[in-house]
Amino acid sequence: MIRAISNNFGAPEIEFKDFQKEGLVVLNGAFRFDPSNEAYQAATVMEIKVPDLSINKSTYAAVYLIDIENEMPHATLLKAWIKDRNTICMEPARCFDSKSCLQVVFCSGFVTKGIRSQLVLDEAIRPTVKADSGTFRLDSFKYYQQLIIKDDKWGFLGLTFDCFQAGVEGEEFSFMVPELPETMDCYAVVVIGERYQDVGTPVCFCHILGQVVHCTRVQHSYNFGNEGRFMLAWFVLDEPNNIDNNI
Known about the structure:
Immunoglobulin-like; mainly beta; Adenovirus Type 5 Fiber Protein (Receptor Binding Domain); globular
């Protein structure tokens, strides 16, 4: 776990679950802030100061910026990178500055900039989904569905849906991915492929606990079960004793 030392955009305490090794940093976490504060309005680059990271400079990754208090949350992507061993940076997007509360979601992997090495393909599990309420069906093309778990410590999840339909519109809902380990306690985002407003793309913010994916509400216009909704997330696994302590 990384606890930020400070930030330059007025956010309260920031914490990430992390996996680090030479050449790779995986960060998973979510936090909220008020975009009307003076520090954020003045920031040309959003900086989070942290204890020492395993890499000094990374290539670009993406994090989500969500208008979380919208009746149907909408999001955009922020470009993020590791500037040095103590600084995580994000490029601000000003499209939601008039909102009262924004949420930033890291489910991201950062790799060292400028390193060339042989590409080794990992063996992936093809995940499935099921639910007691609603209709959730994954795309039949298997390469869209990927679950990779490394060293029982971190991994990557990719899901693309043929149908993604909550049982009750306007209420929080959940579905299961039975192949996920019990040590999951991470954040992710489901992106919905259509939109009816000018700014951002509709999303469901997700908290994955064990094999259950808990999602924020879907409003009527977005609950027709259209194909193309997807989730891409890097995650960090808890140690088994940490799960026991959280029960």
